Amino acid sequence: SSMPITPLQIAEHNRLYEAGWKLLYPYLILHGRRQRAPVWFARWRLRRAAQYLRGALALAPDNWQAMWALGKLHQRLHEHTEALQWLQQAVRVNAVQPDVLREAGIEASEVGDHRYAAEVFTRAIAVRPGDPGHHANLAIALLECGSVFEAEKCISRALALAPEDLSSQAIAERIRAASPVAVPASNRTDPRA
């Protein structure tokens, strides 16, 4: 935990955080929206935003929102290792915030750390069990870990929550293709039963 800060430090923290957020916000990848790499001016603005956010963190080291913002900033710059490092820090400070958990899992998957991705997606489900995206993300992570049967169970839950979701349907097809026994989903039973 950090030391109490003075009213002047609080004001400076807020100024830095808001300045960083204002520069970052137009370039965020939100709701799965993918974008091309930013052009030089956008990269400059994002680097400037990072300076402001790091300054805010220097004053309030437990500010998980600034850590999340830095993770999203590096995600936008396609610097996935750095993004994951910031998001892991945010998870350590706030391990029950579903957006933090989701983004950490996405970046873990991006860098190939599927076990960590599965861990944080499992936590996200514990916090928000009705979110089909968390179940679908966990299914992908489990599939990448080689746990096909567990991935099938997760994607079944995602589809039960959102049967029309095209992403979950595509993930289900990918999992079926990886299944050691190609049985239609409607005829499948638990082999451990």
User: What distance lies between the first and last C-alpha atoms, to the nearest angstrom?
Assistant: 48 Å
User: What is the overall shape?
Assistant: elongated
Overall pLDDT: 88
What is the gyration radius calculated from CA atoms?
19 Å
Structural class: mainly alpha
Number of helices: 9
Largest sheet: none
> SSE order, as H and E?
HHHHHHHHH
Strand content: under 5%
Helix residue percentage: 55-70%
Secondary structure tally: strands: 0
Q: Which stretches of 5+ consecutive residues score pLDDT under 50? A: 187-193
Q: Can you walk through the features of this model?
A:
With 193 residues, the chain is mostly helical. It is built from nine helices and no strands. It has helices at residues 7-24, 40-59, 64-76, 80-93, 98-110, 114-127, 132-144, 148-161, 166-178. Helix 6 runs antiparallel to helix 7. It starts with 6 loop residues before the first helix and ends in a 15-residue tail after the last helix. Residues 187-193 have low confidence and may be disordered.
Name the features:
193 residues; mainly alpha; 9 helices; disordered C terminus
Short description, anyone?
The protein is mostly helical and 193 residues long.
Mind sketching the topology for me?
Elements: H1 7-24, H2 40-59, H3 64-76, H4 80-93, H5 98-110, H6 114-127, H7 132-144, H8 148-161, H9 166-178
Helix pairs in contact: 1-2, 2-3, 3-4, 3-5, 4-5, 5-6, 6-7, 7-8, 7-9, 8-9
